[in-house]
Records
---
Amino acid sequence: MRMASSSRGQGGIQQLLAAEQEAQQIVNAAKNEKLARLKQAKDEAEKEIAEHRAQLEYQFQKKVSESSGDSGANVKRLEQETESKIHHLKSESSRISGDVVSMLLSYVTTVKN
């Protein structure tokens, strides 16, 4: 009888070893799956960050180009306004210069007692 019980004990130990190996394989598979998911999440996050960065860069470049265009248009508008004002002042000075000269001559030539 002892033989039967020792062979049964050996079988039980073999089963325990097989179960331990199976459990270790399950744990290793779970670890590998977890690492794969973490890598995938990291890759997706990096892709999302790159897309967001590209979008922000595009918006920045667009604003820079728009503001550059505006400053060029503003400069041209200001130049036109300045030229218009200069032309207006010249025409006004030409129109009243005779009157100003006459007025100055009258004050200079008037003798006060």
---
Amino acid sequence: MDSRLNGSARLMLVSDLDYTMVDHDDPRNTSLLRFNALWEAYYRHDSLLVFSTGRSPLSYKPLRNEKPLLTPDITIMSVGTEIIYGEGDAMLPDDGWQHYLNHNWDRNIVVEETTKFPQLTPQAEAEQRPHKVSFYVDKVEATEIMNVLSERLAKRGLDVKIIYSSGIALDVLPKGAGKGQALAYLLKKFKIDGKLPCNTIVCGDSGNDAELFTLPEVYGVMVDNAQEELLHWYAQNAKSNRRILRATERCAAGILQALGNFHLGPNVSPRDIKDFQKCKVNIFSPAYEVVKFYLFYEKWRRAEVEKSEQYMQNLRSIFHSLGVFVHPSGVELPLHQCIDAMARLYGDKQGNQFWTWVDRLTSAQIGCDTWLVKFYKWELNENERQCTLTTVLIKSQVEVPDTFTWLHMHQTWLDGFAIANAERWLF
């Protein structure tokens, strides 16, 4: 993160995952893929993506493997009791936050007292964390249990916070924990470092997201499918707050709606552009160029664009005639040969579950007109996922404004995501 941002982030977007960023009712992941394309094309280079989830690190991992989620810069997990920087092997917990939460907290006492309520059904072991004890409970009984449990724990010297969300989940946390408190802690750290984001927007759908909307100076969006307990909180506390939007779109589509509503930056996803040849965008960048190419590649193979030789001629004009593609298998191929192969594959994925997206896209200008672009290129083919670390060398065309020439492309497999039959991999 520090190597990508030299100063304050233009925007910090903080989003819950389940039924906010991720729509579990949409197997095509339409709005999530729209958000992905927008973020990588226009925001990744100077903004921060933060996931704030009730999931623990153990239950977060299978969601990452199931859905086409981007890699966040920071993840707030376990209902605000864990703050983690980076992803995968580079994940680094915020030890200062863990130390802060230890104040007047004793997990053993919480477990002891909660066992006295037979109505509480413990959640899976993966959801039980050092600063979070989690249960399922019927909505009718939840309020009374929360009141009695709070009194009992207070008498035993603990400062706790009990959060009820999604009409079924009850979490007992240290009083200083929670999604809102964790975000406030992060914003304070950024301010001390002189890197407070220019704007912050929070996004949620359930009761454990309510705290996020209480922070001063942040924008907020409650997606159209928000839970009853969050809507009740909104009606009681924030109905007149113009910095909070009740979206009319579900999940990630509601987030895109909010970006436009608050004028925080572009909100038209490249996935919503029907014809890249006719559409002129205000932002001309290597990131947009890469996102645009892979969206066309997907649409071509899904037969969602016209089968036109003109499209292929346009691609040949932006891929250098002597350009080389280093296939993840190690084989070197002329770029134009790869375009010819792509032309023959028109519609081969029509009617199939076939999606592509890029992640962790960064670009560095290495000459007056030349950029080195790095990203992870993902491909979902039915239930199989493949991913390559991709490096592209591109050069702006002086004679044709707002156009790049692709000079070189190099791909290597990401561990665990190689394709068995290497010949089936094109770009």
